[in-house]
Amino acid sequence: MSRLSGHFRSMPESKLLGRLPDGRTRAAAGHELAERVALAAQGVEERGAESAPVWRALPFEGPFVVGDQIGVTGHDLMEVCRRATVDEGGAGIGMGMGMTVWEVSAAGDAERVRVEGVLEGVLRAAQELAGVL
């Protein structure tokens, strides 16, 4: 995530506002990734709740902020995963991968899934975005 966020931070405005093959601007695509990462972090953080969390939206603050949003949300996800695995009796990330967390489905509903699936989805989305930049 840090390399991708650095890439966004170094892009000129013309490139940030340039369109990807799917029609989104690079800034919009980067923001969507940051929002996905933020929701993943919230799902891990609120994993013990009996019902789905009230999901917090990540505001779009403009194209020049997207790199920072990717970096901060990526860091937040790593930290909440680290704390969760310590809480579960593990030594850090890599332990407790079978724990269930909340995730937003494509339809906007929430469901419980294994944390490894959430992390794989975030990583896949980041790799796909990096591949089209």
Descriptive account of the structure:
This protein has 133 residues and is mainly alpha-helical. It has one domain (2-132): Up-down Bundle (Four Helix Bundle (Hemerythrin (Met), subunit A)), CATH 1.20.120. The protein has helices at residues 2-10, 13-16, 26-45, 66-87, 115-132, and strands at residues 100-104, 110-114. Strands 1-2 form a two-stranded antiparallel ribbon. Strand 1 (100-104) and strand 2 form a beta hairpin. It is elongated and about 45 Å long. It starts with a helix and ends with a helix. The mean pLDDT is 91.
Give the SSE map.
Blueprint: H1 2-10, H2 13-16, H3 26-45, H4 66-87, E1 100-104, E2 110-114, H5 115-132
Antiparallel strand pairs: 1-2
Helix pairs in contact: 1-4, 3-4, 3-5
What is the CATH first-level class name?
A: Mainly Alpha
Kindly give the count of domains: 1
From the N-terminal CA to the C-terminal CA, the straight-line distance is 14 Å
Low-confidence stretches: none
Instruction: Give me the CATH fold name.
Output: Four Helix Bundle (Hemerythrin (Met), subunit A)
Largest sheet entry: 2 strands, antiparallel
Overall geometry: elongated
Per DSSP E runs of 2 or more residues, the count of β-strands stands at 2
Helix percent reads 40-55%
Percent strand: 5-15%
